[in-house]
Amino acid sequence: MEKLHLDILDQERKNIFQKLSSFNSIGYLSGGTALALQLGHRVSYDFDIFCSKEIPASFPEKVRKEIFIKEVLVNSGDEFTFLTEHNIKISFIFYPFDLKKYVFEFSGAPLKIISPFGIALTKAYAMNRRNAWRDYVDVYVVLKKGIMKLDDIIREAYVVYGELFNEKLFLTQLLYTKDISEAEINGTQMIEPARIDEVVGFFKEEVDAYLRIKL
């Protein structure tokens, strides 16, 4: 595996990242930070750890032994999210879908990390349920860099998520950005610049090409 882009993390986040080693047996790092560590395309502030089992009621106490918890935001069987003393958000999320073949160990990393291919699948699934600019730019970068193709994402998303994934809705969402605010776009700190018109134009070309082949 290639070297991680640890420069996307400030010192407080680097410290927290190392403390996550205590949870390597529980889950793996996913989300935007996992992708940014591998591709170095944007700054990401939060840590999302996907867990294959539900979050037990005793879990917060285990976390407190390793990381100072300033504020608990969510505490349920599906998710435990909190802020550290430096307002870094950490989420442990019950993720019942099998993505093991996309999860790898990286030299020097405190816990396993899901690959860009796997992250693209989780983003495609998430876009069936929300409209977030960070999801758009993450999928955009994966496709733009040629890590995978649009038909790869759709085909494998059906394998992982089954009927819970909606191809038509996903393709529609790729082209619909009217609900995304200027503040959200400006709040996503890109290392590799990506304008909204550039992203939407790229997706339109990708979707058109996919539909031509399919039809």
Q: Helix and strand layout, with pairings?
A:
Blueprint: H1 11-19, E1 27-30, H2 31-39, E2 47-51, H3 59-64, E3 71-75, E4 79-83, E5 89-94, E6 103-104, E7 113-114, H4 116-126, H5 133-144, H6 150-161, H7 167-175, H8 182-187, H9 196-214
Parallel strand pairs: 2-5
Antiparallel strand pairs: 1-2, 3-4, 4-5, 6-7
Structure report:
The protein has 215 residues and is α+β, with helices and mostly antiparallel strands. It has two domains: 1-114, JHP933, nucleotidyltransferase-like core domain (Nuclear Transport Factor 2, Chain: A, Roll); 126-215. Helices cover 43% and strands 13% of the residues. The protein contains nine helices and seven strands, in the order αβαβαβββββαααααα. The chain has helices at 11-19, 31-39, 59-64, 116-126, 133-144, 150-161, 167-175, 182-187, 196-214, and strands spanning 27-30, 47-51, 71-75, 79-83, 89-94, 103-104, 113-114. A hairpin with an 8-residue loop joins β6 (103-104) and β7. α2 (31-39) packs antiparallel against α4.
Keywords:
9 helices, globular, 5-stranded mixed sheet, alpha+beta, Nuclear Transport Factor 2, Chain: A, 215 residues, 7 strands
